[in-house]
Amino acid sequence: MAELLNWLFGQYADYTTVFIVLELIAVIFGVASVLLASRTNILVFPIGLVSTAIFVYLLWKWQLFGDMFINAYYTVMSLYGWINWSKNKRAQSVEHKPSNDANNVHIEHLHAGDIPILSALAAGTMGFVALIYYFRPVINNGFSFDGAVLGLHLFTWIDYTDMLTTALFLMAMWLMARRKIEHWILWIIADAISVPLYFYKGFTFTALQYVAFTLIAIWAYYEWQRRYRVQPRAAYA
């Protein structure tokens, strides 16, 4: 048991207390935001903003630039999603009856018109993250080219996996902001991949967070399907 605990949490011996506390706060708010999303509760966005903002700072310090980019994007898309869900909630209240129900958000399925945007997001994201990792030696060298060695041969399997999960997460977040059920499928895939990835990177609390994310996302997918079946059939922009 002692060896297992040391394998899971031993890396934190070298961390400052502030970093450990910040990671725990980000994890707690992250799990809370996913639970709120599963209930189509608009508070998912302000709660999620706390988590993503902290992770942007931590991941910059840890030099995990792909992950940092994901969370920076989450921060921007959370603001967009907050506005989009608020408008949709108001539209439904006008169409049907006033409601203070935070879950009063209209859910939609993926449309053919969403595919080109998703494809562009995936291609642009993977290209951008690849560029960051290509110039990682320069970034780690204080943004100086002196003595820095560049090349695709320096990429590791972690880098390629990071590129994939970043693309999946960005597509999922965009679909979530647009209230599309299918965003949960992308979350499930990306979260499941992230569990062993973060364990390997040595961030146990974050890896455990993704275990919770995976389980919640599986349940939430079916919950959103149920809500879609019982909601009014009018569609909202």
Task: Walk me through what this model shows.
It is globular, with a radius of gyration of 19 Å. Helix 3 (44-61) packs antiparallel against helix 4 and helix 4 (65-95) packs parallel to helix 7. By secondary structure, it is mainly α. Helices cover 73% and strands 0% of the residues. It has helices at 2-9, 17-38, 44-61, 65-95, 114-134, 136-140, 157-177, 183-201, 204-230. It starts with a helix and ends in a 7-residue tail after the last helix. The protein is built from 9 helices and no strands.
Task: Provide keyphrases for this structure.
237 residues; single chain
Shape: globular
Please tell me how large the radius of gyration is: 19 Å
**Biggest β-sheet strands, sense, barrel:** none
Poorly predicted runs are none
Please provide the count of β strands: 0
Q: Secondary-structure element sequence?
A: HHHHHHHHH
How would you classify the helix and strand content by structural class? Answer: mainly alpha
How many angstroms does the end-to-end distance come to? 53 Å
Taken as a percent bin, the fraction of beta residues is under 5%
Number of helices: 9
Specify the helix fraction band. Answer: over 70%
Average pLDDT confidence is: 82
